[in-house]
Amino acid sequence: MTVNVLGTKYTIKIVKISKCKLLRENNWIGSCNQITKEILIGDTNEEEYFGKMTDKEKELTTKEIMRHEIIHAFLNESGLQDSSMQYCNAWAKNEEMIDWIAIQFPKILDVFKKVGCI
Ligand SMILES: [Zn+2]
After folding, report:
1. How many angstroms does the Cα of residue 55 sit away from the middle of ligand 1?
2. For 20, 22, 92, 110, which has the most beta carbons within 10 A of its beta carbon?
3. pTM: predicted TM-score of the whole model, two decimal places
4. Secondary structure of the chain in HEC code, one letter for each residue
5. Residues around ligand 1, an ion, CB closer than 5 A
6. What percent of the chain has a predicted confidence (pLDDT) above 90?
């Protein structure tokens, strides 16, 4: 599938980590390539990487990884990736910050909708 991130098309692919050298060798469960504009999402059906999960857990995990990688794409397309290529984890590459946005965004959106501020 493809998504429009601030005017740039990103391709999102669900891949088996066992067959994806990039994810496997880096111990990643997802990635967002700022050059190729490709987002890879690890297939949660692979128990060796995700453990045994219910279908609902797989769905929620996949969605959370997608939000995480999409947030990276937004930061990339905002021109923030360059300033992140500095010594010692610039804020736009801070995994805690990315996770915070990815985890909190649906809740923030719900609140925005509820109060009608979006
Ligand atoms: Zn990340």
Report:
1. 24
2. 92
3. 0.80
4. CEEEECCEEEEEEEECHHHCHHHHHHCCCEEEECCCCEEEEECCCCHHHHCCCCHHHHHHHHHHHHHHHHHHHHHHHCCCHHHHCCCCCCHHHCHHHHHHHHHHHHHHHHHHHHHCCC
5. 98
6. 48
